[in-house]
């Protein structure tokens, strides 16, 4: 079992939630990535990829979840939160996580083409002089997360 969050839920439990959100993206013809932001064992924000539907290149699952949490909590700073996302965040999303002061990111599948947690770029495990450091862990339910993405792209070919 994975790390707990005090609610009795594990990293794997929250990643299953993110995968359910990713299915919503797939149902809308979007790349199936989902994200849920958790604080004190409770979900405070969620999102799934929507760049096509929203005609917005920034509408990644992570950004949508951060926006949702910001509205719910009434603050653009989200300290003490953990983001669970089915694919390793890109550079844009990693930057947003730093600026939002998210404490931890847990991702499923690594992104060998654009991941910013070390696969391609190292923004979260950063030696840069960023004003906040985000802890991260990868590979949680990686096979399930990767299978969902592979199936989506296989259907598109």
> How far apart lie the N and C ends?
36 Å
Tell me the number of helical segments per DSSP (H or I, 4 or more residues long).
Answer: 5
Percent strand equals 15-25%
What is the spatial order of strands in the main beta sheet? Answer: 2-1-3-4-5
Short description:
With 157 residues, the chain is of the alpha/beta class. It has helices spanning 11-27, 51-54, 61-73, 91-100, 142-156; strands spanning 34-39, 42-48, 81-87, 104-109, 135-137.
Give a verbal description of the structure.
By secondary structure, the protein is an alpha/beta fold. Helices cover 38% and strands 18% of the residues. It contains 5 helices and 5 strands, in the order H-E-E-H-H-E-H-E-E-H. The protein has helices spanning 11-27, 51-54, 61-73, 91-100, 142-156, and strands spanning 34-39, 42-48, 81-87, 104-109, 135-137. The chain has a 5-stranded mixed β-sheet with strand order 2-1-3-4-5. Strand 1 and strand 2 form a beta hairpin.
Which helices and strands appear, and what pairs or packs with what?
Blueprint: H1 11-27, E1 34-39, E2 42-48, H2 51-54, H3 61-73, E3 81-87, H4 91-100, E4 104-109, E5 135-137, H5 142-156
Parallel strand pairs: 3-4, 4-5
Antiparallel strand pairs: 1-2, 1-3
